Amino acid sequence: MMMSWAWVGFWLLVAIVGGWYWVWWEREKERERKRGVPDGSLGWPFIGETLDFISSGQSSKPVPMCFMDKKRSLYGKVFKSHILGLPMIVSMDGEVNKAVLQNDGRSFVPYYPKTIMELFGELSIITMEGNLHRHMHGLVGGFLKSPALKTRFAREFEGRIRAVMAEWEVVGEGGGGRVVHFQDVAREVTFQMLVRVLLGIEPGERYKYLKYEFHEFIKGLICLPVKFPGTRLYKSLKVISETLRMGNIINAVWRKALKDVNIKGYLIPKGWGILTSFSSIHLDEENYENPYKFNPWRWELGR
């Protein structure tokens, strides 16, 4: 009997605490709404919407586009959430993103989730600002020019060149002879190695497509300096624009508000994070037709 009353007391306590939390939660949401905080959901207590945000990485779309698309359909291009331990304003609006980045250092400071900081370290270059950031950037550039790295690349180049020359020997043994256009071969080998080292792409369909677009770009380096539609320089610039739209290695920037900031009527409260999403803008069907298709000529049409 005493055990039964203990269980009743336990569940009564759970109900009271849960009810109190619900009332507090609703009051907080109403207070935020009146202050101008964007609509959205903070998700579950403590974990927020982190699981939904992470699971979107399993989508075939670029991370975290599934999460973004779903939230935008519910709340618009600027919404609140709670991701990786911090209440967050997520922006898919170009004007808001621009304002956040232009205020960098005055109203916002770099902020990254704890998991990223654990892996990169508190003194990572992604958290640095001003002169220190420029100094570290120079050191990283110096490392990429280091003799050790050059030696490694040289070994890989040598291996590839030896393989090409071995193919020439096999052809020569047949007795038929072969004319080798050395400059063309050197260009091909160099391009293959750079694409392999920098992008991890081996010869195949993707390689052929990239090579074609690269040649279109190269043709624009030495041409009449005229940017009229249809000219070589104009076309090369379009290839660059489309590459940056789809292949930018930075799909979002994380910041934290130092004070209450109001942008376009949206309040970003002090201490909250803000995630400015670039991919969401670049892959928005409202901005680009067939946004997941690589089409440099869309820029020629002004779309």
UniProtKB/TrEMBL annotation:
GO biological process terms, semicolon-separated: brassinosteroid biosynthetic process; brassinosteroid homeostasis; sterol metabolic process
Q: State the organism named in the record.
A: Acorus calamus
Which keywords does this Swiss-Prot/TrEMBL entry list? Answer: Iron, Membrane, Metal-binding, Transmembrane, Transmembrane helix
Question: Where does the sequence pass through the membrane?
Answer: 6-25
Top-level taxon:
Eukaryota
Which PANTHER family does this one have?
Answer: 3-EPI-6-DEOXOCATHASTERONE 23-MONOOXYGENASE CYP90C1, CYTOCHROME P450 26
List the InterPro entries.
Answer: Cyt_P450, Cyt_P450_sf
One Pfam annotation reads p450
User: What is the protein's name according to its record?
Assistant: 3-epi-6-deoxocathasterone 23-monooxygenase
What is a single molecular function from GO for this protein?
Answer: iron ion binding
